[in-house]
Amino acid sequence: MRKTRIFTPGPTPLMPEAQLAMARPIIHHRTQEFKELFLETRRLLQQIFRTENEMLILTASGTGAMEAAVCNLFSAEDQTLAVVAGKFGERWVELCQSFHVPCVTLIKEYGEAATAEEIAEALRRHPETKGLLIQACETSTATSHDLEAIGNLVREEFPEVTIVVDAITGVGCQPLEADQWGLDVVISGSQKAFALPPGLAFMSLSSRALRRISSAASPRYYFNLAKELKNQQAGQTAWTPNVSLVVALNAVCKEILCQGLDKVVAEAELMARCTRQGLLALDFRLLSSSPSSAATAAFPPEGISASELSKRLEQRFGLKVAGGQGELKGKIIRIAHLGYFDTLDVFCALSAIELCLMEMGQPVEPGSGVKAAMLEARQS
Amino acid sequence: MRKTRIFTPGPTPLMPEAQLAMARPIIHHRTQEFKELFLETRRLLQQIFRTENEMLILTASGTGAMEAAVCNLFSAEDQTLAVVAGKFGERWVELCQSFHVPCVTLIKEYGEAATAEEIAEALRRHPETKGLLIQACETSTATSHDLEAIGNLVREEFPEVTIVVDAITGVGCQPLEADQWGLDVVISGSQKAFALPPGLAFMSLSSRALRRISSAASPRYYFNLAKELKNQQAGQTAWTPNVSLVVALNAVCKEILCQGLDKVVAEAELMARCTRQGLLALDFRLLSSSPSSAATAAFPPEGISASELSKRLEQRFGLKVAGGQGELKGKIIRIAHLGYFDTLDVFCALSAIELCLMEMGQPVEPGSGVKAAMLEARQS
Lengths: 380, 380
Fold this sequence. Notes:
The structure is a homodimer.
Chain A: E1 5-6, H1 16-22, H2 32-49, E2 54-58, H3 62-73, E3 79-84, H4 87-98, E4 103-107, H5 116-125, E5 129-135, E6 137-138, E7 143-144, H6 147-157, E8 162-166, E9 185-189, E10 201-205, H7 207-215, H8 225-233, H9 243-259, H10 261-281, E11 285-286, E12 295-299, H11 306-317, E13 319-320, E14 322-323, E15 333-336, H12 343-359, H13 368-379
Parallel strand pairs in A: 1-13, 3-4, 3-5, 5-8, 8-9
Antiparallel strand pairs in A: 2-10, 6-7, 9-10, 11-12, 12-15, 14-15
Helix pairs in contact in A: 1-9, 2-9, 3-4, 5-6, 10-12, 10-13, 11-12, 12-13
């Protein structure tokens, strides 16, 4: 029997609740039924983002919400600071360039995280900075920035700086306290920890962010957040929303909250630890010095091509992992833990990797990767 | 048994093929499987748009594709002419304003269409015009512009004018020959004749449009069509696409082409004629002097409130029609014919309307609306 398993950090496997919701007959969005469901979904998202801030749902990929943040909050006269530790940090810079928003960068090597102190220093060097643009998890390197420390330090020393967090692969798989840590804009997307197809993005907006929206002058229309906010507070959207995905999102949020957000996050963290131990036992080398719980990125053992390994995993077992992006292309594999996964999936992925390595001539003690992962799981 | 029927011009009822496709486990977009499916889907859309031009699929509502057309094709120095015959024509103007693109308007009363000659006159008055922005069907008034005459006349007299058509509710329910009529950009959306949930927009781009893209300077990132084109020619997308909807779109396009596009369009035209005859027999008054086959807009008989009638249709029969927008709010009802409908659905809607009118005290000969519709259907 040919089965398919995706271990990519987006799209992630669909939650059955989502599949069933998406197969339902569609309802119209200008109805009381949709309005109530939409308002409830906004409240559920607030619980998952740990925020009482405004919450918007956009019909777009996560990149659309990143654009919305840039073009609604900043203009040509607003200095921003972007933390660039990989492809998604680079996306902040490209977005600012596209909208003529000045952007200085704090560049980290691939696999490294920016510390709160480094960010504070950069802000001190650029005291005119209006916005900090950062990732919760830089998915291209599977690296987490310490948003708790960063948020607390920036909030204390730079009260006027608006903190904008691409948490597209952060929400629901690593601790994230939007309000407690003072994060003004937090962005996520449907195809990540929400275990839905791509097509919706979510963003929370603090009052600090809302004040910027009313003053920033960059052009926008589809991503006009002031217009969205006015509509969404009334349970509607500015443009026709992806109704089916919103219905499925409602079901998935309830499932996540029913299982308990802390438990869901802890499970992702456990899967990440197990994966790391398993890969290390198989002579992989971790890319990141601050590894995320969304995904694990690792270099294969000496003499094994990452591309060859990925191809073999797919051909032999229908198991899809992600590769590297940009300069990491062909050098690493990335295995996701966010969304509809459990620990048994980790053992399953590791056993497939073991078998492929053996077939590729690597000396592997069968079961050694799985064993290391199991020991980690038992400890926890 | 409580059933629900939507007769709104988007979202429209889902095709069963779409529902089944959306419930399937998701595949990853960076795979050969998706690439082949995506390239095939682009070709299927070309057949439905009747074009050999480039075809793009965007993860956004139709409005997103309208924005993409404006900000990729025009800049602050490019004069445009927008035909404004309702809310969606007004959207062209708002979009141009948002991106500082100069826009003169040809304004028609709600329910009126612009003629080719009127458009040519406006272009003669503004010989510097670079782009014509128009709807195939102005959904807010259910009015069709004669794109064949307009396209042919503009192409002959104004070879440099790029014709941009919002055919969001035009494709698949009224004749539309993008290439034969010289339409440079044609836009549609998933939740219309494609009988899918909202969330995808499609647009064809002629070589004239592509030349404009390379010169226009308006800011864009998520809707960067040059980047999209480069990716989509290779079977990929610039940003994570709504994979599930693309898979469903593929299935739906095949179903439409298997039934025959001309036949599908003729069926929508028949439904529109039947609906008009049925409503006229029930003393409704048509709003449009150039009624579309996407939807029918009509004023209820004297003394009957459109809002009351809509509400009663929904409460009594779970049947949802659309109301008026803007200054037509509360004054008309709109019944859709585009997508997964057949002639029996028209009889069903008319019988519900008859019953509601009777309950509201209107003197109605039971069956008279349905009878008029049936006679029209038999004639055809």
